[in-house]
Design goal:
Elements: E1 3-7, H1 8-12, H2 21-32, E2 38-44, H3 56-62, E3 71-76, H4 79-87, E4 93-99, H5 102-109, H6 113-129, E5 133-139, H7 152-164, E6 172-174, H8 181-194, E7 202-204, H9 211-220, E8 225-228, H10 249-259, H11 267-274
Parallel strand pairs: 1-2, 1-8, 2-3, 3-4, 4-5, 5-6, 6-7, 7-8
Helix pairs in contact: 2-3, 4-6, 7-8, 8-9
Length: 279
């Protein structure tokens, strides 16, 4: 069975004009009814860095949770944000944007590998003490657009470092949408057998015309967890001067329909989200 994480945070974080909390709540509440496995609703980071997410706590506390809600996930980047997130009882999962790219670590977190891994260790200890799930992204794991060294072995080595800390959910992230289907297949075909108890999901930024081939490569290599955003909105505001949109939820569902892959999503609730013209 496929697992789908809807990353509403990724849809919103790059929008410069502040979205009123009530609009965010209406959007998130509509997403809660669709039936996703996990819903990424915001981040506990400095408002100076991502002002759009300054009201994450208010959004979380205002959510109208259904009888069977999805796992609620937020992004954190340091100890303070982690502690704030863990005090919010509705949060069940934390995520951190680690990367095997030194350039991206510097751009996104102002950190080097040692500092970033130190933060992962700190977050892990805090989260596990509260029985909170962890998702650690392996950004730039499908290629490096900055000129840093990159190889499948470097990806394996990066995963091994996180594995030793107890991390078992590591989505690979292609922030700039440059990964080829062949690279996607080869990376996952190496990683999944090497760490059979790890959920290596896919967080894909892509042009819609490239979605199907990339999804097929990942699926054939054994990927069963995917992250999406309705209408392909968003992107990483620190990755480059121009953001590349996310894999759209609709494109993933079209892929599933064509491949006859079962999902648990409520299509009627999904259509209502699609018809929401703006946040």
């Amino acid at each position: 069975m496929i697992k789908i994480t809807e990353t509403a945070r990724d849809a919103m974080q790059g929008i410069k004009k502040f979205i009123p909390t009530a609009n965010k709540l209406a959007y998130v509440n509509a997403l809660l009814k669709v039936g996703f496995d996990t819903l990424d609703v915001g981040s506990f980071v400095s408002p100076r860095v991502i002002p759009q997410m300054a009201d994450t706590r208010d959004v979380i506390m205002g959510m109208e949770l259904p009888t069977h809600p999805p796992e609620i996930m937020v992004l954190v980047v340091n100890r303070r944000g982690t502690e704030d997130a863990l005090r919010c009882k509705r949060v069940q999962c934390l995520t951190y944007p680690y990367s095997i790219s030194p350039t991206f670590l510097k751009r996104n977190l102002n950190a080097d590998e040692a500092k970033a891994l130190g933060i992962v260790k700190e977050i892990t200890e805090l989260a596990f003490a509260k029985k909170c799930e962890l998702v650690i992204y392996l950004s730039m794991a499908l290629g490096n657009p900055y000129g840093d060294d990159w190889s499948i072995q470097l990806v394996v080595d990066g995963a091994a470092k996180l594995y030793e800390m107890g991390i078992r959910r590591m989505p690979l992230s292609d922030i700039l949408g440059e990964a080829s289907p062949d690279t996607i297949y080869k990376v996952y075909k190496t990683l999944i057998p090497a760490f059979p108890d790890v959920d290596f999901g896919l967080h894909l930024h892509t042009k819609p015309s490239h979605s199907f081939d990339k999804l097929e490569a990942a699926w054939e290599a054994g990927v069963r967890s995917f992250e999406t955003v309705f209408n392909g909105l968003g992107g990483c505001p620190t990755a480059a001067d121009e953001m590349v949109g996310n894999l759209s939820t609709q494109d993933l569902l079209h892929f599933c329909d064509r491949k006859k892959i079962e999902t648990r999503l409520d299509r009627e609730a999904l259509n209502k989200v699609v018809l929401m013209r703006s946040l």
